Amino acid sequence: MKDSLTNGNVFADRIKLPISFDADLLLKDIQEMQLKPFIYYDVIPLRNPSHLIDPSIPQPPPSDDYADGSWCNWKNSQALCKSPNLMRVMDFFSSHCKVTLVRLLRLEAGSKVAEHTDPTLAMHIEKSVVRLTIPIQSDEKVNFYLNHKIVAMQPGECWYLRLSDPHSIEHDGEIERINMTIDMQPNEWLTAKLLEGMNNMENQ
Hints:
The protein is α+β, with helices and mostly antiparallel strands. It has one domain: B-lactam Antibiotic, Isopenicillin N Synthase, Chain (Jelly Rolls), CATH 2.60.120. The protein contains 6 helices and 11 strands. The two termini are 31 Å apart.
């Protein structure tokens, strides 16, 4: 399946997609959630396996392969449903792809995330999902390193990052960094957007 989608293309380790969102509106939704203070790192699930959102839903049977998200059904959280601007992002992608996990990732000012890899989060890996990142709140002193080179992401942009490669974060700014991440099963639409974004970056 992946081979038919990539059609021999080698995707860059970072691609800014030709898609953007209003970061101020997304931040407004987050502020209205009145999230609790946190230390270091905080994860807010906006879309999760259905049985984790609604305990009345039976757990799915055990599976040998969890990578592509097909082992269970997925459900939006109440927090997402009450957040119209975040929901528009979700609706946009779900109209084109099967979306699995959606989260807000908060990183405390002055924090670092050690270099690591996420083995199942890359376009070229069979039966994996692709994770797109939308920065919502950041600081010029937030540095995201991928393969030891900074990815210059700005709020509202939408990025594909080959997270199976080594990546780390150094946050020397003064405000918490907030990203929205969206995992989805790749298809022809996403492949076309990645190729378009890659071509745009090469021509800059």
